[in-house]
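Pasting two entries for a bug report.
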Amino acid sequence: MGREENHSDAGDGDGDRMANKLIGEIGLHKRISNIFAARNIITAKDALSMTEFELMELLDIGMKETKSAVKLISEASSPPCLSALSLLQRKAENEHLSGHLPTHLKGLDSALCGGIPFGVLTELVGPPGIGKSQFCMKLALSASFPTAYGGLDGRVIYIDVESKFSSRRVIEIGLKSFPEVFHLKGMAQEMAGRIIVLRPTSLAEFTGNIQELKDSILQNQVKLLVIDSMTALLSGENKPVAQRQHQLGWHISFLKSLAEFSRIPIVVTNQVRSQNRDETSHYSFQAKLKDGFQEQTSTYDSHLVAALGINWAHAVTIRLRIIKVAKSPMSPPLAFPFHITSGGISLLSDDGTELKGPGINTIHAQGHSDVINFHGEV
């Protein structure tokens, strides 16, 4: 039996510590322990990096003694099994590293276990005019609030690609949604001043912006990065499809790395495109059978899907289709009816409706016909 069957590499801090445990401290028979030391096999990792047959030859001992030694080393160096309760307790202890930014939408925050999570990419998907930018502006306010009022007490970098950010609208949302904060003297100006707006005019300029951010985020107490919208940046690039996909791949990797490094929420908006007839045939629930064959129907000709493609979809941890939790490791797919008021987005009900089957990925235009159509190119 080789190392692979005895040793479980946890890949985290506990696993590394256990793997580096000294052979002399494991409790082997003194004679066997001395043989390991003489052959310069010092740690559990050294021993478990070889098969039992290789160890037997190197140590010049019998297979029975080798198996017994490997068993003891494996047991001593394997990280302990953790119960679900233990994992939950550990998560609570490390909440400062894995916290959430409240959306102040009670039902959505409950579904996401506290709000938009730190350290990952969260995507907002929807057609133009549906409320993506309004949602982002309210999040920016939430991140800038003092902690005493449920905020993160930090700065916000808001990359406003389509010039939809409005300081006047931000203050209106604040006054209507958070009057206890904004009616304090000078608070409205202070909160608005914490939101730093960048307006890159090209993908190259945007790339330069985010590369500079990595060094400044921690130094300047930045607690949220918003990109509104990623689709608009790429749609302005008059380049071959393969080159645009390569550019998108680089930005995916960089943004994921930035989120993990800085431990802040990164929220990116994405637009939609029409799904063509050929694409609908990829899914069994989007075609009906006739005489044993799949027949496409016109029902799905105008079906809307998120732009930017499958690689981008896999990169995001949370996908919100305004306001529908379409992808989350913390929640089943849920839909929340909402409306937009002077105070921003408000839920009509805090009780989400659980979605199943094709309803999870359906995007309703709600009367908007101005739809970005990438045909799956990026």
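Entry 2 (this is the one that rendered wrong in the viewer):
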Amino acid sequence: MAALRNPVVRALATCSLAASLGFAQQAAAPAPPASTPQQNPPAAPAPAVPPPAEANAPQAGGSDASTLTIRAFVPEVPLVFTVTDGKGRFVTGLKQSDFGLLDDGRKPDRIISFTQQANLPLRIGILLDTSNSIRSRFQFEQQAATEFLLQVLRPKQDAAFVLGFDVRQDLAQDYTNSVDKLSSAIEKLRPGGGTAFFDAVYTTCRDQMLTVRSTETIRKAIIIVSDGEDNYSRVYEQDAIKECQRAETIVYTISTNVSPSKDKGDEVLTRLSEATGGRAFFPTKIEDVARGFQAIEEELRSQYSLRYRPADLKQDGSFRTIYLTALDQRFHVRARKGYFSPRPPQ
């Protein structure tokens, strides 16, 4: 009973993810503080839920064969998350009833599915900083990224792309399952120029991740190897974070700053990762970049998948917060902070 002494956890325990009803009805849980700014997005968001279902019904008052299309808005929110213990080790084997969930401060209407999904298809983007600031470390980045793809990509199931960026973005290889093509693309990248970090993240999520469509649940992740510095972008940090949230993409970052102290770039990498449910890694020497990739590989194989129907979801494009917690306070849940609701079809 020690885990229920915390008042937030005690309230969430009353709305734990029970298998039949989704949540118990004893008490209303308090809404957590919002962790993402609630301002309007710079562009129209993509749906965070599947498109509306359509049904055909006879047109009233007539005998002809014309029909009226009825659109039923049935929202569903997919959520992929990771659970760790106090020592950072991944926790597997938990049940639906071990968690509490609030969507925009409310209990979801229904939990549709809950599984430990180590085998969900992956769509991965490798973003390598090719600016002058990382020239001396670039070879280690290339080698680590190639080894990661060799270990992670599964034939006929996963796909990845490679993008280098300085003041511009270079899509060296679009989505493919071929590790040979991806490796060749990584080897062809060459460092030089300034850094438009936020532009690269924003554009990648908009053009490569937001456009991914699938009838099954997939995991979308971007792995960025960079020092987090930016001196050329036209968009701001919050714009980049919001675009990742619209694209429902987890961002992992590996810092190339190996100095003893963290700088502003490292803080940027941390904020970007935390807002999207990812994680930032800070190697103490450049050769340890590979360890960051290895940790990401392990995490991708230790994740849970949850799909639920939110309560009172309006088609207004607003940002809705997600608050997911383990009822056992020994465990820490890492998930994206929210999503943008869809807008009505035009």
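Dev reply: Rendering is fixed now. As a check, the viewer should reflect this: Residues 1-5, 7-15, 17-47, 49-65 have pLDDT under 50 and may be disordered.
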